[in-house]
Predict the 3D structure of the following.
Amino acid sequence: MQNDRITLKDLSIFTSDGSGGVFDLLDRTTTQYGRDVLRKHIHNPPDTPGQLAATQDAVKFWAVNQQLWPSVISNGTLVMLDKFFESADHVSSPPTGITLVMSAFFQKIFNRNQYFFTKFSISHLSDFLKGCMQLTAIAAQQQLPAMLQREMDSINDELKHRLTERVVNIPKDAKFAELSELNYLARREMKSMVYRLMASYARLDAWQSMAKATVEHKWVFPELQPELPIRLDAVQLYHPLLPTPVPYNITFDNNRNFLVLTGANMSGKTTFMRALGVSALLAHLGMGVPAKSLTISFMQGIITNMHVEDNILKGESYFFAEVQRMKQTAEKLLHDKPHLVLMDELFKGTNVHDACECTKGVMEGLLNHRSHLMLLSTHLYEVAHQFSKTNEILFAYFVTDMAADGNYHFTYELKQGISNDRIGYRILQKEGVIALLQQSNK
């Protein structure tokens, strides 16, 4: 699956300040290295249905075996090892002479920093290798998914290094001479091996993080389907960032792959689209999704047209930016591999007449692309009604309870059909905008 920066921003996966987005819900990594892998995984999900299924199997394993994750390795362990091996190139010769003769007592006095750095580093290296051994022991006791087994085999091969046993069994009261010698040998011989182990551990950390998040949030693993025929069937799907979300049921298939959403502003259209987009992305990461159940075809990517930004430096207007984003969407839809396309209130940067004509033209064009799942929200009800007899299009709207006294209430309930609710002027009145403007300052 391929998702660009705009899509991830539109779906609030990452926030501008680095906190509070969907990523915060997924990040249960134990190390910064695992966190970096998780971020890269979101930017570059599995490329094929087979890779996705293998990733989901690995995440499922950790979801039911969280107790097997080694606690001996911490973020500090990997940070310390990084610093330890960064200085390896500066160690040109093994410790000899007075260095080995001096007792730990004198080392503490005359070379205090070097003594504790050496002792601390070897201790962390020992803990890291012990944690890796605990991971490989899992493979000896249980049948593992193929992707997880390959990772464990790779770790096990690296642990066959001639110094592994010596580092793991280093006594806490080891003499400085032994520590110094092991320090030299480890730096010269184990650097590449340890970095490869750290990379393997980071991948495992990302997988267990997705598993832990799935269990913690009580999400469910989706049923993954082949690319075609295109299908998406969601039961009680909801947006994971909302404290009290309203669940939705929605079904797409090869015969009806285009949904047009209508409803008043603030009634729930954008939230619904984001909920669907987030769940589709999570499914393609190999983890659980916020729903009672979700069946989804493998997709090539998610394309969003939600919050387009103009570019003042290039002299591009908001409307031109909208057109360019729609052009990018059209280019991707020329490929047969399925995409999920989410379009929210297109062509806001022009007048109503132009917006109607542009939206109508886009909808007519989208009907030619039957291998993709497409959602379009609009408050241009006249355009929606023009396509009301088109069998390929599903129509749904969000309910707004309107009272005779001018008040309104959003139920966030999704129903079949086309809305005719118009409450913009009521909102202006209720917020006192009209009354304020009518006041005279004389």
About this structure: Residues 31-216 form a domain with the MutS, DNA mismatch repair protein; Chain A, domain 3 fold (CATH 1.10.1420).
